């Protein structure tokens, strides 16, 4: 905790991009781990029915007692659904396939896009804490929401609940096309549901320095989005793709690899840009 005992502000970030396979889940897991490694208290909310963030953090299906489905449907309180992970200071609310049916189940509810926002309100008041035993201040300082690859009701819930959207963008030819559509959706949500919503930034993923197309995409995205694009790019790195099958973030699987080091740099860059003081880890 900071000098004077004032609580660190909570930052809720939705990782969104309606394209699949661009690095949303990988970034949620590994940015979350990197933030935790430098002293932040992080909650990952798995909002994808595929549950890849849950699996990648080593929480298999049998361990998913309460899930984001239970929280969004109002059957469980947020605090009860928070689970510890093997990473100190990193907690998770897992997802299950039940989420697939949530859209139908909530179709006629007037507050259907505001469920996650309501559920996260106790965090703003510092009420829900990490389940991990610890002597320090255990209030969450970051919530990372891992969105499904679609602009559906689940993603709307994430955008309605977040302070900002972090967009993982894969360095490939059609990267910018999807980005315009996502930015339009963000503007709509901002107008209708969540006036505070901002663009946190764009993180370029799976960058390959030997590929000319990668370099061209980077140049185009930087021209289009300006300084919203992080300096840090996540390289394509085989260790990053191997780690989930071991149920580990890459930082626990191979701390020295280029992917781990890039996620650590991204975490520092995000904290610096927010003008936060580094947490006393
Ligand atoms: P999304 O959540 O957007 O669908 P994922 O994070 O699941 O995307 O990533 C898609 C695939 O790409 C996964 O198999 C993942 O392991 C792999 N991947 C993601 N980032 C990297 C990287 N930097 N280097 C190598 N493989 C990566
Ligand atoms: Mg995913």
UniProtKB/TrEMBL annotation:
A Pfam short name: AAA_31
Coiled-coil residue windows: none
CDD domains: ParAB_family (cd02042)
SUPFAM superfamilies: P-loop containing nucleoside triphosphate hydrolases (SSF52540)
Ranges of residues in domain AAA: 11-199
UniProt-listed InterPro entries: AAA_dom (IPR025669), DNA_Partitioning_ATPase (IPR050678), P-loop_NTPase (IPR027417)
Role this protein plays: Involved in chromosome partition. Localize to both poles of the predivisional cell following completion of DNA replication.
Protein name: Chromosome partitioning protein ParA
Organism the protein comes from: Methylobacterium frigidaeris
Lineage: Bacteria, Pseudomonadati, Pseudomonadota, Alphaproteobacteria, Hyphomicrobiales
């Amino acid at each position: 905790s900071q000098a004077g005992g004032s609580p660190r502000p909570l930052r809720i970030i939705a990782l969104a991009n309606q394209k699949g396979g661009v690095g949303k889940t990988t970034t949620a897991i590994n940015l979350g781990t990197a933030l935790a490694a430098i002293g932040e208290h992080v909650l990952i909310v798995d909002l994808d029915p595929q549950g890849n963030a849950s699996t990648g953090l080593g929480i298999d299906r049998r361990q998913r007692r309460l899930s984001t489905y239970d929280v969004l449907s109002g059957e469980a309180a947020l605090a009860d659904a928070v689970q510890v992970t093997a990473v100190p200071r990193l907690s998770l609310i897992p997802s299950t396939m039940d989420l697939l049916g949530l859209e139908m189940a909530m179709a006629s509810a007037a507050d259907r896009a505001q469920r996650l926002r309501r559920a996260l309100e106790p965090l703003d008041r510092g009420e829900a804490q990490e389940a991990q035993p610890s002597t320090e201040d255990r209030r969450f300082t970051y919530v990372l929401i891992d969105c499904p690859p679609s602009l559906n009701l689940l993603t709307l819930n994430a955008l309605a609940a977040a302070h900002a959207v972090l967009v993982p963008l894969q360095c490939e030819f059609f990267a910018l096309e999807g980005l315009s559509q996502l930015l339009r959706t963000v503007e709509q949500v901002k107008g209708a549901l969540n006036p505070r919503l901002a663009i946190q930034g764009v993180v370029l993923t799976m960058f390959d320095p030997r590929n000319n197309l990668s370099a061209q995409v980077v140049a185009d995205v930087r021209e289009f989005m300006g300084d919203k694009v992080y300096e840090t790019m996540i390289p394509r790195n085989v260790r990053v793709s191997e780690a989930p099958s071991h149920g580990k973030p890459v930082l626990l699987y191979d701390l020295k690899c280029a992917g781990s080091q890039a996620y650590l740099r991204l975490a520092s860059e995000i904290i610096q840009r927010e003008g936060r003081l580094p947490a006393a880890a």
